[in-house]
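Hi team,

As requested, here is the filled-out complex form for the zinc ion run. I kept the field names the same as last time so the parser does not choke. Let me know if anything looks off before we queue the next batch.

— J.
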Amino acid sequence: MYVLGIETSCDETGVAIYHDQFGLMGHCLYSQVDMHSEYGGVVPELASRDHIRKLVPLIKQVLQESYLKSNDMGGIAYTAGPGLMGALLVGASTARSLAWAWQIPAIAVHHMEGHLLAPMLEKNPPEMPFVALLISGGHTLLIQVENIGSYRLLGESLDDAVGEAFDKTAKMLGLGYPGGAKLSSLAKQGQPKHKFPRPMTDRPGLDFSFSGLKTFALNTINASENTEQDKADIAAAFQNAVADTLSIKCKRALQQSGLKKLVVAGGVSANQHIRATLTEMANKEQVAIHFPRLEFCTDNGAMIAYAGCQRLLLGQQQDLEIFARPRWPINDTLTAS
Ligand code: KG4
Ligand code: ZN
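And here is what came back:
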């Protein structure tokens, strides 16, 4: 079955086609980053309008590049939440209308389930059960994954998500939006001289808190002479603190669950230092670790096509309602039948 996947939850329009036997047939992505960077962050109304402009041309492009036609499609998967309501509605209403016109089922996909399953698109996909660390701009989640739709929340951020802390710290350092990747490149030229805290690691539990790191960064910036070298040193110290904190919590989650497999996904999993720190921990713990390829760490249509295909194969689908939920807990998705 060919499944068309549509992602429009924030500032990226992603479209892909996945086949349950042949794998990923094609995918394309349009990023709105240049448009939003002028404003220092995502402007929701502009995001929705741009998704409207780009979505249908991208669907046509993916079909053409995959040498497929609309009547080859067996289902349509779309991101139904969490995300910006206007942006979600563009994807949801387009997907629902096409599914109705093409007389095929449509399935609503949770954006973080898409991220969670992105490593399944790689050559040696992890087998369930496993522990997953999802680190994106809006979420920081530690999850025990038993099966498609069977997700037990082990821990989450009580305040800022990791990506949000990266973006806000980058802004303080005078880097543009979105700052995560820029902060990471700057950190390469720095030495982690400042001793940042490793929040909530001195007490039991698997929750996170990153807003204190951001404040610590601000105080350190204010106390420095703000030279380029100072900025790079602060970026390196911040990044180290985030990587160590994530590593300590993942190790704890693996020990508590007794599982020997760790999946790391979401935009921040593109960070090379975080990848290296978590890989080192996993090697020491003799745990297998899986990441998506770099282009599927951040938002994309391929992960939505994959997740939707798995759910359609389980016999799930949406009725004619246009289903969009800006806030949607991951453990509240439909459970596998
Ligand atoms: O998953 P994603 O594309 O969108 C959301 O679902 O939020 O994640 C975007 C987040 C942004 O906060 C961005 O700054 C961060 O991922 N990010 C990074 C890197 N690449 C993207 N953060 C740190 N290092 C990176 N290399
Ligand atoms: Zn995302």
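Two things worth flagging: The chain has a mean pLDDT of 97. The pocket of zinc ion (ligand 2) is lined by residues 111, 115, 136, 266-267, 299 (CB under 6 Å).

Thanks,
J.
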